[in-house]
């Protein structure tokens, strides 16, 4: 599913949605332009309160707050579930995946609608790379550590806020990409899971909503990685 860029983003609250053509049509009545890969356009995000089930962070510096949660799920179990979804494809309208359907019905959808605008139905055909990561977290039992969101930029900032953000490759980490090579979180285009570091300047990943509109295993150059979110998995 293609990258979407907001061309009619003059309304302050609504511009934060950045969830693709369907949301834009519903909320803005604006126009979107297609580009090369699954994404949402980075725009200024809301200063929203992080809701229940934050990642575990026992070493949070003084002055910062987070809820400490632990999961009994390993990185390998999460990756096994993600890889079991390889081949799942969107329909001709860019929807129809179990990830979009689940997210549209979820508690988190209500929270992100309150934050970004739109409605539940808009998620059904919206770009779904972040919804895929969220679905895997939910269905593996690791959501408290993986989090959930439909917007890649806000998702990355959630990890950063909870001091679970960095640049070291780890299997099971949530990897955020910018096709331009930018290291600015506001320029993030896409998200997936790290499978391994290939040792040659690339990483192997599992991603939803790739350029082929599917869940796929990919090899990506590290030069396109903005950073990694680190869920607190079981040993």
UniProtKB/TrEMBL annotation:
The keyword Signal applies. Residues 48-70 are annotated as: Disordered. It comes from the Bacteria. Pfam families: CHAP. InterPro entries: CHAP_dom. Residues 125-209 form the Peptidase C51 domain. Residues 1-36 form the signal peptide. Keywords: Signal. This is CHAP domain-containing protein.
């Amino acid at each position: 599913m293609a990258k979407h860029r907001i061309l009619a983003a003059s309304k302050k609250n609504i511009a934060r949605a950045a969830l693709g053509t369907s949301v834009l049509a519903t909320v803005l009545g604006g126009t979107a332009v297609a580009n090369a890969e699954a994404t949402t356009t980075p725009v200024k995000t809301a200063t929203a309160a992080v809701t229940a089930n934050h990642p575990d962070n026992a070493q949070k510096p003084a002055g910062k707050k987070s809820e400490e949660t632990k999961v009994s799920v390993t990185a390998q179990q999460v990756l096994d579930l993600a890889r079991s979804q390889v081949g799942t494809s969107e329909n001709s309208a860019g929807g129809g995946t179990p990830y979009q359907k689940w997210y549209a019905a979820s508690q988190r959808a209500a929270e992100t609608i309150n934050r970004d605008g739109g409605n539940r139905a808009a998620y059904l055909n919206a770009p779904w790379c972040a919804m895929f990561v969220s679905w895997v977290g939910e269905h593996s039992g690791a959501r408290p550590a993986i989090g959930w969101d439909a917007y890649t930029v806000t998702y990355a900032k959630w990890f950063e806020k909870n001091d679970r953000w960095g640049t070291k490759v780890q299997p099971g980490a949530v990897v955020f990409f910018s096709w331009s090579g930018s290291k600015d979180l506001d320029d993030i285009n896409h998200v997936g899971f790290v499978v391994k570091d290939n040792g040659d300047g690339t990483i192997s990943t599992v991603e939803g909503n790739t350029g082929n509109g599917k869940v796929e295993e990919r090899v990506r150059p590290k030069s396109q990685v903005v950073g990694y979110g680190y869920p607190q998995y079981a040993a």
